[in-house]
User: Fold 3-hydroxyacyl-CoA dehydrogenase from Caenorhabditis briggsae.
Amino acid sequence: MLSSTCTAAVRGLSTTAQLSKINNVTVIGAGLMGSGIAQVSANAKLNVVVVDSNQSALDKAQKGIESSLQRVAKKKHADDAKAQTALVSSVLDRIKMSTNMSDSVKDADLVIEAIVENIDIKRKLFAEVEAAAKPTTLITTNTSSLRLADIGLNLKDKTRFGGLHFFNPVPMMKLLEVVRHNDTSDDTFQKLMEYGKAVGKTTVACKDTPGFIVNRLLVPYMFEALRLYERGDASMPDIDVAMKLGAGYPMGPFELSDYVGLDTCKFIMDGWHKQYPDEVAFKPSPLLDSLVDAGKTGRKSGEGFYKYK
Ligand code: CAA
Ligand code: NAD
Assistant:
């Protein structure tokens, strides 16, 4: 559990109300990211509720978390089947699933939003979350690319709002970008950093700029690979092999795009292109657009640049 060590007054509030300790975490969105965030939070002995508007997404998340935990448990307790089962069930016991958002955020100390990368949908959700949550709840987004100032536009108290940008697959990736916008209070930022450490991540501080640190570099690189392919300069498998063996990346750019989700890649780039139409690094890709239109969103749909079983 996290202990509250920060005594700094809450910037922007007229009272000296302290933000509460983080015991209860509500994750909204049970997709690739939300399920991983729920898993690492429950693994850190926090009580977790996962919310999704879609019951089948919750069912899929439940199975995904269980199989990911089994992989972790096998590694941690290689020759001890009992200890493996105990680890898996102790973490699963701390995770509840729900389709009722308002009910699920009532007792939350921390809300982490991981729904679709769409500004209007996120904005609407945040206004509803704030209305249903306690006045001390920290409210955060896992957005890949959107400005926090834009997402949180409708929030009445922006001091408790910040960014927690995790990486996919969450249980394996060691980094957490903790993002503050102009109104995030010092107390909120400090608590988000503490939460990151509690869930076993190395934290870096980011400003509210497009793509923060990692995606500002990584996403243009993925689209540059697409342009290289679209020009006919090399095949997809050759580009992937080249970047793995020549640059030491664990996945090539097409494998990685499929892993992230082609819809998410498209939403990121479309948003940036709309905001910065003259920036060549933010040019959308017709090939990517056509795959997303055809429902080929990468590994999660069984096909993207490559086919998956
Ligand atoms: N849960 C638990 N364990 C997992 C796991 C999961 N979801 N995925 C992989 N693992 C474990 C495996 O059990 C395995 O453990 P051992 O080596 O001890 O057996 C280990 O990770 C390696 O897995 P694999 O052998 O299956 O495959 P791999 O060696 O290719 O590793 C990978 C998989 C960790 C995903 C690696 O390929 C990788 O790091 N890829 C790059 C991922 C990346 O760049 N992510 C960032 C994307 S960008 C982003 O997230 C930001 C955004 O906003 C879009
Ligand atoms: P995903 O498509 O796998 O899952 C999104 C989930 O949100 C779906 O289950 C959907 O049913 C649910 N949802 C949509 N609208 C909702 C609403 N109003 N209320 C409740 N649930 C709702 O997406 P993902 O890849 O997990 O991405 C989620 C967020 O995390 C996005 O903002 C994305 O940019 C960001 N992100 C993604 C990655 C990645 O590699 N995929 C990495 C870091 C951050």
In short: The chain is about 45% helix and 15% strand. The mean pLDDT is 93.
